[in-house]
Amino acid sequence: MKKTSPIVVFAIIVTLIMLALRFTPIPVAPDTTKTGEAPSTPSTLDQVEKSGVIRCGYWVYEPFISKDPNTGELSGLTVDYLEQTAARKGKKIEWVAEVPFDQIKPAIDYGRIDSFCVPCSPNEDFKKAFDFAGSFGKMPYYLYVPQNSTLTREQLQTARFAFVDGYLAGPKTSELFPKAKYVSLPQMTSPADLYNQLRYGKADVILNEHVSAMDYMKANPNVIRRFDDSPVFTVSMSFPVKKGDQRWFDYVQTMTDTARPENKATFLNLLDRYGLGQDTLAPEEK
After folding, report:
1. Percent of the chain with pLDDT over 70
2. Using CA atoms, how far apart are residues 153 and 28, in angstroms rounded to an integer?
3. Edge-to-edge strand list for the sheet holding 53-58
4. Using CA atoms, how far apart are residues 79 and 234, in angstroms rounded to an integer?
């Protein structure tokens, strides 16, 4: 019996494959141009609407968020404000866990929390990692010096400035006082340790918001003071949410915006309750 050439066998196989490909239907993506329907993109909002719960990560940062050492119960300006604005939308805030600085992004990206619920003033690195939704008012930044400081405005330009790495005050200090000397502290430095740089003569000036300075001055009277009562700059405060989740961004934006009349009234009442003047925090204006 005559053997079939391997070349002929190969040619037959190739032909059969080509015929199969020719007559096998190839699946295609549905055409949405005719119906006008856009593909649905998953959003944090889907889970929030389903559960009725907004899961918040947080830091303990008075007077925004305080934690009872015995019961673990949270209170504070941010706690009250978010719980009241969420309730208007029929939602409940669940304070899930304290989240370290370097864990905020994975906690949001992997869905362990829906938002980091401590108001932030984002620097450029933060803006690359998160979208910042809503508003928690405007926060002025001031200069702080030791109580007995004789520093003049001209001498500020070459003074020693302390700041904590990773926060807005660092790059702003470099931008506004380029000839100064800098004392850079690690990200996890507490506000008390930051202001202690003034107390113990390790720095001459700190550029920071008044909330933390106010708490330090209350606990340590006659140690530091404002250089003067003129804000160096003012920043808007908002909440980090997952990058690119537009539906969730829009929801948080509407829910928390302090420029909205109903939210503004709540915000001003809470500022008064917590004894905070508008030199500390002020609602956004439309």
Report:
1. 85
2. 69
3. 92-98, 53-58, 115-116
4. 23
Query: Could you tell me which of 159, 154, 150 has the C-alpha nearest to residue 225?
Result: 150
**Gap between the Cα atoms of 159 and 151, Å rounded:** 9
Q: Is the Cα torsion angle 260, 265, 268, 274 positive or negative in sign?
A: negative
Structure pTM? Answer: 0.75
Q: Residue 30's pLDDT band (boundaries 50, 70, 90)? A: very low
Predicted pLDDT of residue 132: 93
What are the strands, taking DSSP E only, across the chain? Answer: 53-58, 66-67, 74-75, 92-98, 115-116, 130-133, 138-146, 160-164, 181-185, 205-209, 224-226, 233-236, 239-242
Residue 282 DSSP label: B
C-alpha span between 115 and 268 (Å, rounded): 23
Calculated CA dihedral for residues 16, 17, 18, 23, nearest 10 degrees? 90
Cα torsion angle, 46, 246, 237, 281, sign: negative
Q: Could you give the 3-state DSSP secondary structure of residue 270? A: helix
